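Appendix B, Record 12. Input sequence as logged:
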Amino acid sequence: MEKVAIVTGFSSGIGKHICEILENNHYEIIRLKSRLEDEKSLENEIKDILKTKDINLLVNCAGVGVFKPHEEISIKKIKELIDINLTAPIILSNLLLRSLKKTKGHIINIASIEATRHSKYSALYTATKSGLRNFSLALFEELRKSDVKVTTINPDITKTNFFDDLNFEPSLEEDAHLLPETIAKSVIDIINFKGVITELTVRPQKLKINKK
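Logged structural output:
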């Protein structure tokens, strides 16, 4: 019997690879049609889904980034990062928890290495990702008795289209970046682990980036 997963950020990068590997492991993937910033549409879509489906897995993978002096970031962009990187995962967890408790399911939040450190020009992005990380860790403590697992993955620099609109990108050197399929494989390892991996930080051996 197939299990059911909701994965955000499914159209590219890490999210796309997570969907592919889950489908190869007998998961039905529900790809949300609502914009994550549209809270009312998101709520209505989830309510419709739950009329016919029980959810076994929620993967909050959608994310956007900006890395520049904070005073140069528009208020619109500030709101976009908070809405997509932090608010949407919190709301989706809220809306799906009753179903996840029924299935003894799993929430996996894709945060970032930036959630664990303090980097120049990353104040806004770090705020959203560290907020997601700490939400995950606290939610795990809340849900232990209900058998719902909660995991945070903190990937370091990964070769995806995340960097398309940024002024830097991963080095082409093989040991200086991660691949999205590597992060996706870790999702399967986390799901199959007998116990709970509450947090996983994944990094390349070398630290190198290319300026555009």
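The domain at 3-211 is CATH 3.40.50.720 (Rossmann fold).
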